[in-house]
Write a structure and sequence with these properties.
Chain lengths: ~180, ~220
Amino acid sequence: MTGHHLAQLNIGTARGTPDSGEMAGFMAGIVPVNALADTAAGFVWRLQDGDGPGATALRPCGPDVMVNMSVWEDLESLRNFVYRNGPHLDFMRRRRSWFHPMAVPYLVLWWIPAGHVPGLDEALSRLDLLRRDGPGPQAFTFRDPFPAQPRAAGLHVPGPLPGPAPGRPNRARRPGSVNDEAEQR
Amino acid sequence: MSEISVIAVLDDPVRRSLYDYVSARGDGVSRTEAAVATGVGRTLAAFHLDRLAEAGLVEVTFARPPGRSGPGAGRPAKLYRRAAAEHQVSVPPRDYRAAAELLADVLDLTGAEPELQRAARSRGAAAGRAARRRDPGLPGDDLVTGALAAQGYQPYREGADVRLRNCPFHLLAARHPPLICGMNLALVEGLLAGAAVTGLTARLDPRPEECCVVVAASKTNAD
């Protein structure tokens, strides 16, 4: 994995505004959970902005949709933090009380050259790709991961992808209607 | 080896008790330890442990006992530990795993986790009440440990806490961690409440290859 880092984007439609009672538990937890991420093994970077804790004030997908983006040394580091860190797992356990369920993928993973800081446009285009084509080397999920491929087209050209790489096999999934997290294996 | 042949390897009382002992220990177990714990001779224990290893039910590693190394330390001991592979046999054929995966997929999609947690809490409470009725006078710790053992969690003490060696829903938990770990937590919380046990609190504290729930001694221990 040398030379590559793993980027993740995760979005959620909030059940209330950041100052609402519905979101109080989430807003109270985000700072300590982010602090855990910052010191977790393999953590590289996470998206932040000036107006709220973490990236909670950014709204690139609509007024109710919160985003969360980070970079990790490899898939195992991210998996260890997300699923094997007690406080974070407990935070995830409670996510339904803060965010509406989504019938399409809301988390995407992709490889970036080490040192590259992914932008939101890049991240959202990877999520679009995942939603359209299902998991592949350029946009995948925990349940259906792909290894970093140094020679894969597009990998060293960070930025919004215009569309599927030429000649890529059509994965024959119903576009946008399938939750990949629910479909794997 | 077919699933049913693997299961059939356990159809011997000595072998079964050796498997239960190794399985509940977690770390590597030597032949001598296993023999002493199950009350059989070392040679007999070695024979059965090696049958379990051939069937893939336990894994073999070699290690010197702690504190012994370098020349003169002797041969490394053969150690046995539970294998990760799962085996299931159903007669007639039933496939609850596939059904469980489908149901979990749909719960993830629809976000019905609060309802799942509520149902799990009430199921745990029923188990806790039943355990309390069976043994009204038992101390809370023992009651909880017994009830968790009966549900396959393989509880063990670690200081004042009760850790759970086995996740009864392991494959599902690996596939849907927040969903299944949240369900597990609610089951154990319900069990504690149903058994009317005070001084113990369940919380998530995942460890590799164990259940993600720990039953920890509360700060104000009323037991």
